[in-house]
Amino acid sequence: MVVKTGLMLGQMTDGDRLLALALPAWRLPEGRTQTEAEVNELLKASLAAEAAFLRTDHVELRRWLVDTGWWQRDGFGRAYARPSEPELPEALRATARALATVEPAAWAQQQVSIHRAAQRERRARWSEAAERPPGAAASPDETPGNAR
Fold first, then answer.
1. Cα dihedral value 9, 61, 5, 45, nearest 10
2. Quick one: the chain helix, strand, coil %, rounded to 5?
3. Which of 54, 126, 139, 144 has the highest Cβ tally under 10 A?
4. What domains lie within the chain, and their CATH numbers?
5. H or E, element range at 36
């Protein structure tokens, strides 16, 4: 999912949406309350990094995070907090446990790097095949369209 672009939260399956929201949710430190302005800056940074695959703005993203339970908001909409794992809705707890072992921004960047390296490799194989003289034999793993 993180290697794509332009994904809209409302068009995702519930499971994909919860995973997509988990990445920016981790920008807010657990147990620390932050103002709306601080949260907005965190979300803008997330949308420029690990959540760049989303087609949304920080305001919609903030609403989704609160509505799904990743974040809590005070009654006036001025303060936001990320609840501890036991306080999260049951559906989010397993994802929260998994995210506790990684740094989401670094993980997302690693996935994008792996994807781009694979793309470069496929393009190089296609270029080599295109430059091969007509009728020259190619090994089966060099055949264009052969999935590795």
1. -160
2. 55, 5, 35
3. 54
4. 9-109 (1.10.10)
5. helix 36-47
